[in-house]
From TrEMBL:
Protein name per the record: Sodium/potassium-transporting ATPase subunit beta
Family to which the UniProt record says this protein belongs: Belongs to the X(+)/potassium ATPases subunit beta family.
Record has Phosphoprotein as a keyword: no
Bilayer disposition of the protein: Single-pass type II membrane protein
Keyword Transmembrane helix set for record: yes
Keywords recorded for this protein, A-Z: Membrane, Signal-anchor, Transmembrane, Transmembrane helix
Cellular compartments per GO CC: sodium:potassium-exchanging ATPase complex
Natural source organism: Trichobilharzia regenti
Cellular localisation: Membrane
Gene Ontology MF term list: ATPase activator activity
Cross-referenced Pfam families: Na_K-ATPase
Residue stretches spanning the membrane: 41-69
One biological process term in Gene Ontology: intracellular sodium ion homeostasis
Length: 293
């Protein structure tokens, strides 16, 4: 190779090296990336950050104004048939230690297995204890003839003595193998129960049984607190005096304690609780399992 050819090759390599990165991508002379210098990029990013921050603040403020002037504070925005519960409350249950499971399983000889259930019921009833500590003058009279003319702005006191032996002193029966569960109705604003047969009772009735014949044999007798006997059958009672719920301060929904007095040991018992004597409630069964070891 001659010196002239070698010099030409060096010139070619130098040219290719200088032009390997397109100038529109990066200009080495002006230090510009995609046509913008570093300072220009910083200013551009600051502009868009400020723009979108102002846009977010504007829509947040607009949403706050809409909610402030359209959502009432003393009652839900959606009531009646427009509510999520379709104006039909359903049955709920305590204890609910595991949301994903409906089995209440424990061993009478191992407190660690039933303490979570006891603690769950305690936490649920704590609100009742706090509200009941207020003077009686703050509550409506919900018994006898006065119950018909009670002040709807006041709430009825729900005494935990109504739950009978289902109390914290005896661990709600879990330590003795006679577990209690608390049944409650979902709170629905403005809902007033409509009895199916007012000659039988004006109150809502509830009854629990096995889901199939084998469970009926294993479940044993069930006691309810408070209760009412209708045509020889004992039911739990949700008193009509506690309705309607109108967002009153300190409102306490009625609770029924169901005590399983002699469930068969070491067997999973399928339980079904059903509402009776009410037209305008969700009649879907409340299903759960109990297993006592």
């Amino acid at each position: 190779m001659s010196m002239q050819e070698f010099s030409d090759n060096l010139s070619t390599l130098s040219y290719m090296s200088r032009h390997r990165i397109p100038s529109w991508l990066y200009d080495s002379k002006s230090k510009a990336l995609f046509g913008r210098t570093g300072k220009s990029w910083v200013l551009c990013l600051l502009f868009y950050a400020t723009y979108y921050a102002c846009l977010a603040a504007f829509f947040t403020g607009l949403l706050w104004l809409v909610l402030y002037f359209n959502v009432p504070e003393d009652h839900p925005a959606r009531t009646g048939k427009q509510s999520l519960l379709d104006f039909k409350p359903g049955l709920g249950l305590r204890p609910t230690v595991e949301v994903q499971k409906s089995m209440i399983k424990f061993s009478t000889g191992d407190p660690q297995t039933y303490f979570p259930h006891v603690d769950n019921i305690d936490a649920f009833l704590q609100t009742y204890k706090d509200v009941n500590a207020k003077p009686d003058s703050q509550f409506a009279s919900c018994k006898g003839k006065d119950a018909d003319t009670k002040d709807v702005d006041k709430v009825c006191k729900f005494s935990l003595e109504n739950l009978g032996p289902c109390n914290n002193k005896n661990s709600y029966g879990y330590s003795k193998g006679t577990p209690c569960v608390l049944l409650k109705l979902n709170k629905v604003y403005g809902w007033m129960p409509s009895p199916e047969d007012s000659s039988v009772s004006n109150d809502i009735l509830v009854n629990c049984s096995g889901q199939n014949p084998a469970d009926d044999e294993n479940i044993g007798p069930v006691a309810y607190y408070p209760n009412k006997t209708v045509k020889g059958i004992t039911y739990g009672v949700f008193s009509n005096a506690y309705y309607p719920y109108l967002g009153q301060s300190g409102y306490l929904a009625p609770v029924v304690a169901a005590e399983f007095k002699n469930p068969k040991r070491h067997v999973a018992i399928l339980v079904r609780c059903v509402l009776y004597n009410v037209k305008n409630a969700n009649k879907d069964d409340l299903n759960f399992e109990i297993m006592v070891d």
